[in-house]
């Protein structure tokens, strides 16, 4: 018997949380669903609280890439705000210097590496 508990999310949506025993039992079925192109995540935890999510690997890779992009954007935004706050000519940084600071190759079409 499955214990499925609806859980409200901060954004107003709702997810169903499956107990861990049912999640473990259903892992082979989830793999079949993922292979069939049905990528809905399996959300599970104890006492109706979401604690973990199983997603297809390619979706996880995309999420990891988005997280790296978000971290890099935050770093650039913070650096830009610091430099704009000083508003001094000697704090000017050329595009080439900025690219070097972030490890970007402006002569390449390849994506820059995520900051460490």
Keyword list:
116 residues, alpha+beta, two-stranded antiparallel sheet, 3 helices, 4 strands
Please sum up the structure shown.
The chain is α+β, with helices and mostly antiparallel strands and 116 residues long. The chain has helices at 20-35, 57-86, 95-102; strands spanning 4-8, 14-18, 42-44, 52-54.
Molecular structure report:
By secondary structure, the chain is an alpha+beta fold. Helix content is 47%, strand content 14%. The protein contains three helices and four strands; from the N terminus they run E-E-H-E-E-H-H. The protein has helices at residues 20-35, 57-86, 95-102; strands at 4-8, 14-18, 42-44, 52-54. A hairpin with a 7-residue loop joins strand 3 (42-44) and strand 4 (52-54). The chain is elongated. The termini are far apart.
């Amino acid at each position: 018997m499955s214990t499925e508990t609806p859980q409200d999310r901060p954004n107003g949506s709702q997810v169903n949380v499956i107990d861990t025993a049912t999640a473990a039992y259903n892992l082979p079925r989830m793999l079949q669903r993922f292979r069939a192109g049905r990528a809905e995540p399996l959300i599970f935890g104890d006492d109706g609280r979401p604690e973990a999510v199983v997603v297809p690997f390619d979706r996880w890779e995309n999420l990891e890439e988005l997280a790296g992009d978000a971290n890099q954007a935050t770093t650039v935004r913070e650096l830009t705000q610091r430099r704009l706050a000083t508003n001094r000519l000697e704090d000017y940084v050329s595009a080439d210097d900025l690219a070097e600071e972030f490890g970007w190759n402006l002569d390449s079409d390849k994506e820059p590496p995520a900051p460490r």
